[in-house]
Amino acid sequence: MISSIWPSVTWYTARAGGFTAYVLFTLAVIVGLALSTKLQSPSRWPRLINSELHNFLTLLGAIFLGVHILAAWVDPFTRFGWNEIFIPFASHYRAVWMAFGIVTLYLGIAIAISILLRPYIGYKWWRRLHVVTLGLFVLATIHGLFTGSDGQTWWALGIYAVSSVLVGVLLCRRIFFSKEKPKRVPVPANKPVAVLESARR
Ligand code: HEM
Question: What share of the chain in percent tops pLDDT 90?
Answer without folding.
Answer: 68
